[in-house]
Amino acid sequence: MRKIFLFCSTMVLAFSLNAQKLDQKIDSLILSEFKESDGPGGVFMVAQKGKPVYQKAFGMANLELDAKLNINSVFQIGSMTKQFTAIAILMLEEQGKLKVSDPISKYIPSYPNGNNITIHHLLTHTSGIKDFTKMKTIADIAQKEMTPEEMVNFFKNEPVDFAPGEKFDYNNSGYVVLGYIIELTSGETYEDFIRKNIFDKIGMTNSYYATDRKIIKNRAYGYHKKSYGYVNKTVINFSVPFASGSLMSTLDNMLKWQNALNKNLLLNSKNEMKAFTKYKLNNGKEIEYGYGWHLKSINGTATREHGGSVFGFKSMAVYIPSEDIYVLGFSNCDCNSPTQLVKDIAKLSLENLKVK
């Protein structure tokens, strides 16, 4: 009995020391990039089997008020919004309100070439439609309140970049169209649909459709860095990025999101796997993208990844299904990208937390 006790005590001590070493290694990685304790910073989390094993905040949430970031700070997540848009589309498909194989002309009859562009093309960035963020006239509407229909009209008549299904080219316009289709088929605003059917359902109580007007507790403010110092982020009306990049969240809430996906709380497993399937172009070439996630790998181990970038903020997350490891990082200055950092932390976590 005493031998068993000593063995268990030794195992607990070894695990504790290993976790401490991992913490130190992650700290070292982050501090090599986020060096200014009195400047904008970031928050980071590593979770395994649904629970955090590392979470820390670095730097300031508000430079004017001298307020520090904390692990509950609310960040704009940019294009990580696309995960929610994609799952919402699959939820509507499960409800029988649409099919991903449907042409978008079924919902937006006036859309040019809409008979040949499907919802699937929009989800996989293979539609060929013009990305509105690359249009010079974007500055004309960036601060205007736009309806989803007005946003679609803004880019729909632009020359296409390629025929549907011909190639993969990351595209924000496609997800704006998806948001409009969500509204048309559900009879609700995109904001309300996401809140009622996802945020409220799984307890994401600190997640929002972004707003600069509403009082949001623990809000992290966004910054740009100039040669003379930091400045407040450029103002954008969130109706412009819309379903392609207008959500806000926290580390804890994003872990709830990942856990809900793992437990199939929003979709049955068959339909949910559509989001995590690599699809093919017209020529049979496979792309490393599903619906709302990049599908890549770390040293041969499959990952699901996505980042985000919106004025003043950057985000990145990597999920490793085989080990149930989730790594997440948010930054409140677009001068500090967590993208490679989160990938490096994911690699480090895989090496240290992998189930033997």
From TrEMBL:
<dbReference type="Pfam" id="PF00144">
    <property type="entry name" value="Beta-lactamase"/>
</dbReference>
<protein>
    <submittedName>
        <fullName>CubicO group peptidase (Beta-lactamase class C family)</fullName>
    </submittedName>
</protein>
<dbReference type="InterPro" id="IPR050491">
    <property type="entry name" value="AmpC-like"/>
</dbReference>
<feature type="domain" description="Beta-lactamase-related">
    <location>
        <begin position="37"/>
        <end position="334"/>
    </location>
</feature>
<dbReference type="InterPro" id="IPR001466">
    <property type="entry name" value="Beta-lactam-related"/>
</dbReference>
<dbReference type="InterPro" id="IPR012338">
    <property type="entry name" value="Beta-lactam/transpept-like"/>
</dbReference>
